[in-house]
Amino acid sequence: xxxxxxxxxxxxxxxxxxxxxxxxxxxxxxxxxxxxxxxxxxxxxxxxxxxxxxxxxxxxxxxxxxxxxxxxxxxxxxxxxxxxxxxxxxxxxxxxx
Length: 97
What we know:
Layout: H1 10-17, H2 37-42, H3 64-77, H4 81-96
Helix pairs in contact: 3-4
């Protein structure tokens, strides 16, 4: 799979093609100040936590009216619409089992 370029302009793409990858061992980090113990204590991991219960990404086709209704319901409940859809499907599946 080809790595996606973050450069969007044509001149930028041409310039990016001419850049050769550099191993970390050749990067000069001397101008970056070291972090203090206090700064290191305050650091937090960014991103989703690894739980071992990762959800699987799927594609599903819904009518625009149904999707709009689900989004309105989610907004009223103060949650993301995909979370609401997940909860509704879980409830329906547990009742059917």
